[in-house]
Design a protein that fits this description.
single chain, 17 helices, binds ligand BES, binds manganese (II) ion, binds zinc ion
């Protein structure tokens, strides 16, 4: 898809999109379009339910001789509520509908409504971002009806009085979109293709952007004593991997890095504590945390963020076999702590335990945030609207909450505490990997992770089991099963609080 920012006088190609706030109050460009159409919009409004609410639209055919094919009046909602997120959702919905209708070109001609908290250049960039995120497709495995599934809109022009500002800030936004697309691709890939080694191979490609990528195999991990991670992968024919990605963008500064750790279970069958057929479907996406971390590092590198950042992902396949880990096994983690594995399906926390220890001991990071499709219970608590946030650091938690809100990836903080920690006491080892009840399942998992957080280390855990992929209604900005959730949040957190 071709995106361009052009001056408002430019020729309007394809669908000409103009706006109205609630009332409806037509913005200046909408009035110009109405005049160009000989008052067709005003006439159509008389017999329409269009009030300018967000999500509404009204379409009229462009008059003969016009450069545009049609004029679409879209609702912006209340001016005071029209922000970057609203603009993105609007443009995503518009281009999504027009793509389905077979339109090939779209021209956004939307003024900043009076009272909105947006500069013209920023509005233009958000309109472009909404279109860009909506244009994502994953058609790699189709051999037929490919054209029907392609995104039809091939060119999007955004008219803006501040095209220079939009062109200046767009590359950074585009870098984030690319990071999200990488994360979506990884989540959408089937598990026969995306093995731990294949994932590692794809992560290595970030070296083209200046990221230092190291891959540890089972031999190296054994030397490091990563018995928890290795135990999860030992039933699989495929080798487990730990991928370490470093983006050193804080030039000339010995700055402690920020660290992201991702759960990368390329397929979660449950292991010997086997899932049901139903429960196993979608478990190719159990590497969504690792995908988000990889996508975030890609975004930071592509926009040359002035930060030192590391991404560490534990990649395994959780399979049942004669060599698989058993319920009742006791494993020793890299931290030295022992774990009684009572359920091989509570494997994500085992992978993260060693990845967390490795990350903290190797990099002494300013903070560490782990992302994981960790528990089904987080969906019981929060559904698919919010990811679960757990943290030992209020300041970090507040920053994550703010970043998530700003980019439309909201999180909701849940508690930790000694009472919950008791739930994972083991009869024979330092801890067990399940509680034995269904109470507070997501918190118990977070408490488990907290046991691997070292002294004075700021840490947060994001349980993204409800947000990494979508089985129900699709989000306007995420048209595929894999959402790419978390890339934007992490990028924003860095941009807002840890750069420069
Ligand atoms: N990957 C799953 C969590 C999950 C479940 C993510 C459903 C998305 C949708 C995780 O490894 C798991 O199996 N967790 C168990 C934990 C239980 C055995 C304590 C769960 O949630 O049932
Ligand atoms: Mn599991
Ligand atoms: Zn899992």
């Amino acid at each position: 898809m071709l995106l361009s920012f052009v001056a408002p006088q430019a020729v309007k190609a394809g669908a000409w999109i103009v706006g109205a706030t609630e009332g409806p109050v037509l913005l200046a460009a909408a009035n110009r379009a109405d005049a160009a159409a000989g008052g067709a919009i005003a006439r159509a409004l008389k017999t329409s339910r269009f009030t300018g609410k967000a999500g509404q639209s009204l379409e009229v055919l462009a008059p003969a001789g016009a450069s545009a094919s049609r004029i679409v009046l879209v609702g912006l909602g209340k001016a005071s509520e029209f922000d970057g997120n609203a603009a993105e959702n609007l443009s995503a919905n518009v281009v999504g509908a027009l793509s389905k209708a077979g339109e090939g070109a779209v021209t956004f001609d939307i003024d900043v409504p009076k009272g909105a908290k947006l500069k013209p250049g920023a509005l233009a960039v958000h309109l472009a971002m909404g279109a860009r995120l909506r244009s994502y497709t994953f058609n790699r495995y189709r051999t037929r009806e490919v054209a029907e599934h392609e995104f039809h809109v091939k060119s999007v022009s955004v008219l803006t009085p501040d095209a220079p500002a939009a062109r200046r800030t767009w590359p950074a936004m585009d870098a984030v979109a690319e990071g999200m697309f990488l994360a979506r691709d990884l989540v959408n890939e089937p598990p026969n293709v995306l093995s731990p080694q294949e994932f590692a191979t794809r992560a290595k490609q970030l070296s083209k952007l200046g990221v230092k990528v190291e891959v540890l195999g089972e031999k190296e991990m054994k030397k490091l004593g990563m018995g928890a991670l290795l135990g999860v992968g030992q039933g699989s024919e495929r080798e487990s991997q730990l991928v370490v990605m470093q983006w050193n963008g804080a030039r000339g500064k010995a700055q402690a890095p920020v660290a992201f750790v991702g759960k990368g279970v390329c397929f979660d069958s449950g292991g010997l504590s086997l899932k049901t057929g139903q429960g196993m479907m979608g478990m190719k996406g159990d590497m969504g945390g690792a995908a988000a971390v990889t996508g975030a590092i890609r975004a930071l590198a592509a926009r040359r963020a002035k930060v030192n950042a590391v991404g560490v992902i534990g990649l395994v396949e959780n399979m049942p076999s004669g060599t698989a880990q058993r319920p009742d096994d006791v494993v020793t983690s890299m931290s030295g702590q022992t774990i009684e594995v009572l359920n091989t399906d509570a494997e994500g926390r085992l992978v993260l335990a060693d990845a967390l220890t490795y990350t903290q001991r190797t990099f002494k990071p300013a903070f560490v945030i782990d992302l994981a499709t960790l528990t089904g219970a987080i969906m019981v608590a929060l559904g698919t609207e919010n990811a679960g946030l757990f943290s030992n650091d209020d300041k970090l938690a507040r920053r994550i909450e703010a970043a998530g809100k700003a980019v439309g990836e909201p999180v909701w903080r849940l508690p930790l505490g000694a009472g919950y920690d008791k739930m994972i006491r083991s009869k024979i080892a330092d801890m067990k990997n399940i509680t034995g009840t269904t109470n507070a399942g997501s918190i118990a998992a977070a408490q488990f992770l907290k046991r691997f957080v070292e002294k004075d280390q700021a840490w947060a855990h994001l349980d993204i089991a409800g947000t990494a992929w979508q089985d129900g209604e699709q989000k306007s900005l995420a048209p595929s099963w894999g959402v790419g959730w978390g890339v934007r949040l992490l990028d924003r957190l860095v941009a807002e609080d840890y750069e420069g």
